[in-house]
Amino acid sequence: MATSMVQTNDEKRKTELFRCIAVQFFEMVPIRRIKWQCEQPLEIDMMDQQALLSLTVKSPLCQHCPPSIFYQRSFIKKFLSLLEDYGSEICDDLYDAYTELLQETDAEEEDLCYKTFTLTNNKAVTIKESVNMISFGTTGLSTWQASQHLAEWSIQNKELLSGRHILELGCGLGMLGLAVCQECGVRTYTFTDHSANVLHLVADNIHRNLSGEEDCFDSDVTEEKQPIGTCNSHIASTENDNASRACKRSINIKMHLSKESVMRTSSDAIECTEDDSVEQSAESDCETHSNCNSLLDLEFVLNGPQWHALNKDVYVHTSRDMIQVGRLDWESVTQEDVDKFGPIDVLLAADVVYDVRLIPCLVRVLKLFLSRDPHSHGVPPVAYIAATIRSEDTRDQFLIALSSASLSYMPVEPSSLRLFHYDTSIPIEIIKITV
């Protein structure tokens, strides 16, 4: 009886461990930081190895929305190495999977990969992004840790966002916004960025996460049509893939052409230490931005049946009219540009304070939005900005600029909710800003 109880407990621990490893795999957590074992190590037999394979590289999600081939190879290679260290017998399926990945050729699509972030109650967000931290002069084609931190904070404090009109500055590829839309019951959500390339991909990510009902790791989910606050979809329709294929192909080609001057390699993006790479990436972004204006200044037009134009540079999702995507250039923004987005109650932004040269533009944008008349509940607009504190000097200059613009600010209590597996070695601060 005692032996049976031990086996049952071990099986439960294995199930939880494998699920945790799978979540980290689909987030593309750097291999060296993956938690491979419990505090009390478990023996991993060949059936366990097959189970983990079925949750990761052999899962349906990996077939539809795969992490990069390089990352999958590194994952299986590390798993094999750990099993050899433990003296475990290794199943043939694991060797076969590694061999197949070695034979995979790096295609054009390899510059873009998928990351899937698991939310609460088996919901998830799948993002197509660049494997490189800098992509032709913009940091917006990668998901940064401040976005994940602000998403956790927003979910924990959803009462501050529920029923509100939300606009995100510097949305990148939409991880924060899609998490908030699924978890917080917002009234409307507007994704904004200055880069047309970023906005085309965020539009694709929005449709991908709104078009189906497939769950990330749980195959026993009942399919039903759900509102924006609870949708848990992941795989884009064939129609949308066809509509956006030309744009994504163009982005891929430009990535290949600009690798040497603008991008980091895939191995750097996956294996570098985040505390070093993030600051270097921000500096590199500043240096390369002026060389890439021809790529960033593309006309922003969303074609296809999924989107219709609300006005110049602002598009509304056809089936989810509470979702908007718009281009917003901080350097040239006017009050008219701000007003075209309609009523806004809350501004969100993550990792937008990284270059002192952009601080005056950012503060000006904040002032324009926050000075508008209250809309919902008679409460004045408010902004929540999450910043990774890589440089105390940059942070201080941002706070000084806020004060000079007569904007009030205060730090908010950090989130105690941990859903994602990002690096926390560098502090992330969330500040509340009002007029």
Terminal CA distance: 66 Å
Low-pLDDT regions: 1-6, 134-141, 213-245, 253-297
Q: Largest sheet at a glance?
A: 9 strands, mixed
Strand content: 5-15%
State the helicity in percent bands: 40-55%
- Give the SSE order as H and E letters: HHHHHEEHEHEHHHHHHEEEHEHEHEE
Count of β-strands: 11
Enumerate the strands of the largest sheet in spatial order, edge to edge or round the barrel: 5-6-7-4-3-8-9-11-10
Helix run count: 16
Mean residue pLDDT: 80
The coarse silhouette is elongated
Structural class: alpha/beta
Q: How many whole angstroms does the radius of gyration measure?
A: 22 Å
Describe this structure as you would to a colleague.
- With 435 residues, this protein is an alpha/beta fold.
- It is 43% helix and 14% strand.
- It contains 16 helices and 11 strands.
- The protein has helices spanning 2-27, 46-55, 60-64, 69-86, 92-103, 145-156, 175-183, 196-210, 238-257, 259-262, 266-271, 274-289, 293-296, 335-339, 359-370, 392-404; strands at 112-118, 124-130, 165-169, 188-193, 307-311, 314-317, 323-327, 346-350, 382-388, 408-411, 428-434.
- Strands 5-6-7-4-3-8-9-11-10 form a 9-stranded mixed sheet, sandwiched between helices. Strands 1-2 form a two-stranded antiparallel ribbon.
- Helix 1 packs parallel to helix 2, helix 4 (69-86) runs antiparallel to helix 5 and helix 8 (196-210) runs antiparallel to helix 9 (238-257).
- Mean pLDDT is 80; it is low at 1-6, 134-141, 213-245 and 253-297.
